[in-house]
Write the structure tokens for this entry.
Amino acid sequence: MVEGDHAPFCHAPARLLNLGSKLASKYTSGVNGVHDLGGMHGFGPVERSPDPPTLVRWESIVRAIQLDTRAAGVMNVDEFRYGIERMDPVHYLSSPYFEHWLDGISRVLVEKGRITEAELEARAASLVAETEPPTAARAAFKAVPPAGFRRDVAWAPQRHVGDRVRTSTASPVGHTRMARYARGKLGTVHARHGAYVFPDSSAHGLGDDPQHLYSVRFAAAELWGESAEAGTSVYIDLWEPYLQTA
Amino acid sequence: MVEGDHAPFCHAPARLLNLGSKLASKYTSGVNGVHDLGGMHGFGPVERSPDPPTLVRWESIVRAIQLDTRAAGVMNVDEFRYGIERMDPVHYLSSPYFEHWLDGISRVLVEKGRITEAELEARAASLVAETEPPTAARAAFKAVPPAGFRRDVAWAPQRHVGDRVRTSTASPVGHTRMARYARGKLGTVHARHGAYVFPDSSAHGLGDDPQHLYSVRFAAAELWGESAEAGTSVYIDLWEPYLQTA
Amino acid sequence: MAKYHPNVEDYVVSRVRALESLLLEKGLLRTETVDDVIARFEKDVGPLVGARMVARAWLDPRYRELLLSDAGTAVTHFGLPAYGELRVVEDTEDVHNLVVCTLCSCYPWPVMGLPPVWYKMPPYRSRAVLEPRKLLGEMGWEIPEPREIRVWDSSAELRYMVLPLPPPGAADMSEDALAGCITRDALIGVEPVRLPGAK
Amino acid sequence: MAKYHPNVEDYVVSRVRALESLLLEKGLLRTETVDDVIARFEKDVGPLVGARMVARAWLDPRYRELLLSDAGTAVTHFGLPAYGELRVVEDTEDVHNLVVCTLCSCYPWPVMGLPPVWYKMPPYRSRAVLEPRKLLGEMGWEIPEPREIRVWDSSAELRYMVLPLPPPGAADMSEDALAGCITRDALIGVEPVRLPGAK
């Protein structure tokens, strides 16, 4: 990035940058990224459209790629989400939803060595120039058995419905699903869901590490203090390692 | 904003939008805006330049405008900061520093009726077209006596050095200087600074409302839990209304 | 080739096509999957099975009980595979439910089709947990106290759908007619179900 | 007219010129103020009085005491008006201090000149409070434990400056020579003071 007092703090729109350098970023993100939007101010009104949502072609292709890379066992959903969370913050906030997917998927596939940035660049260039090489032979698609997210574990959940719990105050680097707005807060266990794949492990290639999952209720006043709306509460699904005895 | 599943979440770069509509936004921001950066992940490395900081001409003019509108008693520093905090989040994160100032100052001056968006647009257009009107008569500048930020108050501070205090958990809409990362946290009063203008009042045209100000020390572990770096702490200047007895 | 949305830069489209081409070669993508997504989502699919499940629950107390206690099985009544992650939360006169995903945009695609654009964008994701009553008011639905508002933030793999209150007259209608009145937005919890002609 | 930075859009420059022109007419801006800012900040002004204050404090124990107990008065020794909001925090063998403003970019302009660009940008503002030791390491200054790091987040109108540890040999140098070695970045706390030729 350029520097100097005038050259400023000027993120070029990320899509004008070299995609490769973005994908290869060695800087990781954690849950305190711009994707962690709960409770943020300043984004304005919700604007609804009378038109029903549909996909256009490139979006359909991205969705299909997400489905099949998962079906092929190449990229689990936590790796996929963590790929998106490492987008440049301005790019994240200013790009269409399925561009998030494209960016995240590409990053993970490069990291896993399934594609290289160079071949992606080269293929894009040849497609743009309409000098697409004769279709190469296609390897056969091999699906892995879908495993879902629920896991059987040998141990009982440590928390019971009605237990008071306090959430972790950690700000981990890496992927987590402990949203910032609910960190260090007192809640009440509303339901036990059984054990599920733990994203904080699964996103980093460290295995399923299944953990018991709970629905935890937080009174708005606990989350937002005197800014809370009366008579409102938030239910969040949280894994056991996020919870401490209150 | 356009809508439809494909039309996306596509903030046009804010500077391409009509400035007037941005300035006149009825949507307010609070401290949970993107300007509240403490503890965020994902912004990458600090990049230093060997070149010393200097201003270029337009930056100097903006700085001068900020100094003189304050000297004229037209815009206090809290109104100025709150003007900036209401920028479009993507614009804030992608524009040079002194463009923040330009945007914030313009917003406040329009709100206060000192300029209108129409005259600003018209003057910019005439300058671009080099059809600048003959220089109008200039009104005389009248400075108000500089008041500083410290105030004498009749009451004693409620907190003593060494007191344990807990910060507010409120997420107020409007301007505040209670940063999100330190909200609802336990700290220790390190020093008493005397009474100062209270930004939460001053930014909204509600007067100085002076309040005692303290330096409060927070152990990193209190702020960041298990993500904290050992042997680090943060000292934050906080006004009495932000603090509760721990 | 396909019609691309005119607002999306050539850059993005060229990257998508390059990735598609590479993954087809490498055996990590099937043309059938692409064709299937195109066939399902390039036209409006509506709220799909979700609307039918709600309509049936309004008319059939036993199905309602199943839907609330075991939504994953309740979907199989409409020909879908079991969906164990689905949870249905019930509106009452005293409680209204609202679904959001603050961290990404989780949404029960199999029963509710494509998520609306606003559901995926920062204004909704940021405000739904902080000021749900004010937000619903801005979106056209005033819900005065003391009716409680419960917000469900889909932070794990469970997916939430609201069982709205039936509109007046629902008991006299057919399941099909009711299902046609139940919008995606009502299943998220941002608008009530209204019958045609009702205000 | 003036030379504008080539990277900044015409849009911004035209708005600045329009605002300047309007405010001059309305009596809310003085050409003298503009000229004064231009004269002071369009060339490098260095860390100014801040460096001189530190140099003197290293050589004169009584001035050091004043600087730490009443920095607002200590600035008057260099011809500046009293600056009651200034606070100087002292580095020792056991403690290092670092200054940031997470909410905007507060900085003691009167004694330290223009803030560096990185000081005003999200990477520094986000990370200084969360991982100061790691950040300093990345910026080239490894500060191992058990040396404590204290971060000062300038959330009010007080302004912080670091009194760094003197480099070896400082006692044998003149105040002027020392002041010339004291960088803006050292007064923020992101680098140690080094004498010329020292590694």
